[in-house]
Amino acid sequence: MPGRRNVTRFLDDWLSGLDPDVERERVARGLPPAQKTWCWEGWTAHFQATGLRKELRGERRQTVIGDMFEGLGGHTHRIVGERTIEFDGPRPLDDRRLLERKLVGKAGHGYETGDQPLVIAVLCAGECVRDHEIAQALFGRIDYRLGGRADWRAGGLWRNRSGWRYTRVSAVVTVADLSPISVAVVEPTLWLNPAAGRPLHRGLFPWRTMKVGAEGRIVERAASRAVADVLGVDAAFPREYRPG
User: Is residue 160 pLDDT above 90, yes or no?
Assistant: First the structure.
């Protein structure tokens, strides 16, 4: 998620160069209001600014270019200026789709790996990204059946309506809930591509491993080494550091 400062700094710099009377005159002549597009880490937001009437300036937050109100449920916004504009606001984020989009973007790059397997590592920053969401970002939506069978719908990094795709990506390493004080305890997960053109050698990585088995079930294999052991630090690092 973009931090508030990322957005407000951009808007402050843009709005400080606008004159409310000029912007009101522009709209009065039938021209579109001032517009600006902000892009950051895959996010794109389009902004419009119209000048407030002079009698309204100084009210509320002391702004001179527009204002914004959030309606019930956090969905409806009203921009008050020369005209009142309402638009649909934020909706709950879909971590699965965001992760899938990021993975497809990485898989589409022309990485030169020769005859070596290609592995993508991704930090799952969403608050609700767990194995269930990651599996669907890789293989598509899951339909569970009686008897434990799992059917995969078309979608995800490795499957679409035509079948398997991005087979050059042999595996994906995911890490969730990582923070500076948890680097020695948060366990990465290695997700294997069943249709990989160049499968990984067994035991190449010591991480917890997930692969799709018979009947579409995900088979989990525990890590062979602890994260702290791989890093050569104590499990309490960095809160406690004991030089070797």
Answer: no
